[in-house]
Amino acid sequence: MSTISRDEVAHLAGLARLAVSEDELDTFAGQLDVILDSVARVGEVAADEIPPTSHAVPVTNVFRTDEVRDGLSRGEALAGAPATEENRFRVPRILNEEA
Amino acid sequence: MTAVAEIMDYDEVLRRFDPVLGLEVHVELSTATKMFCGCANEFGAEPNTRVCPVCLGMPGALPVVNGSAVESAIRIGLALDCQVAEWCRFARKNYFYPDMPKNFQTSQYDEPIVFDGGLDVVLDDGETFRVGIERAHMEEDTGKSSHVGGASGRIHGAEHSLLDYNRAGVPLIEIVTKPITGAGERAPEIARAYVTALRDLLRSMGVSDVRMDQGSLRCDANVSLTPKGESGFGTRTETKNVNSFRSIERAVRFEMRRQASLLENGSEIVQETRHFDESTGETSSGRRKEEAEDYRYFPEPDLVPIAPSREWVEQLRGTLPEMPWERRRRVQEQWGLSDEELRDLVNASALDLVAATVDAGASPSEARSWWVAYLSQRANERGVELAELSVTPAQVARVIELVGEGKLTHKLARQVIDGVLEDRGEPDEVIAADGIEVVSDDSSLQAAVDEALAAQPDAAEKIRGGKVQAAGAIVGAVMKATQGQADAKRVRELVLAACGQQ
Fold this sequence. Notes:
The complex is a heterodimer of chains A (99) and B (502). With 99 residues, chain A is mainly α.
């Protein structure tokens, strides 16, 4: 029972900036089907009175006081950057979009 | 695409279509720290000096919500007459773009913290239009990119981009209106008035700097057209980051005309983001709008849900300051203003300035007259907002005081204010530097009076004969001779005395 098409996998791969080969499209489509089917079975088991859950612990309202804490120095922040210029992170030009 | 020459006349647009607006306003909160980390929330710092592993999206770093930002979000919701969610979550909005180093933005999706409210907007003629509020949700701002190479620092033709992440993670509230229908020809004005009213409200609450020029208040305008007599909404466009109140009005008006022209030619409106060009007043195509599902939103696993207790909400309601509309009513009563006078005051964005001038000791009528008349005119000449003029309410109050003491005439007072506007210091410094003083030395005034009486013997004769109203001509001549530096009241006394009338 295939519910995920090759085209959908290709679209998702594009959104996630992943290079996926033609062969892999078939592989992943099949694997994603298995995952979706498994999740669907959980849905069958869950009764109506059980609300969908996103968090494993029943905790709410964890807040931080609004006080400044030291972060990284600029040198530390930029240390892992592949390229820097004028104390900024340098990235390849961005196509088709406007900041 | 559509040349200006073939774009439809605005009145024609209104004859054929009903505009529908949706406004999205992003407000940067003025908290001390960012939304999910303790980095300082500060505008204008050296690049990449207000960053940490959380806002740089480093592996393993975990966010913690800023409690003050949540309070501000709830307070904003209450001020906008909204419901506060009993329970809500953050969500990840996934997209790849270098302005967010995490490769997602932490936002809220289908569970905004506040929803279903409204804001009464006062239009230029004093009429009120209620704008429905769909929701307001919490999220974080992105980093700032600058584009290197190419012609104009714009993205097109740029060779590479540079990123400063000081702004990444700054708390943002996005306020979304319900579809605004029935606005007709006033749609552009309503768009401007709404964002202005929102700015005033947020400023009075002290939750944001609300500076459009610095990006702490940003507006995206969604516009679509429905042919007259039909129902439903047409395809919309979203004009991004229009950065002044006037531009919002212009952008909406332009989009209405552009879309009407396309529809009239049988073309379709492309759902897309568009950019407003301040210099031409036109919008241009940006990118195709992503579908919401392309963002693959899902509940943020690193943050627990927020469940504001009703006690907390009521406590926050108690911290709301006097709302701008309540203040307007109170001021109108206290200062004895007519509806028109109040409207002029509000339209000139002068209410806060006048109130501060009154607080500094001036009378309401004097303070009002300076800000609404002379200073508004100066602001217009310079193309700036009244509040951006480099004169403070205290300085205006000081000048009013000096006029009251007879040390300045109105003409001289304007000269002093001009000096302050030219950044030449406090009023007293300008007065000292320019040697400005009212000519009160009677001997020099007496000479000018005698000269004027001699030059106009007819008038002098009339005054001597008891027609004191003729003194006006002599006073005028003396004021002219002293270049306005004389105290007109004293001159009049001297004229009458010289003619034996006192």
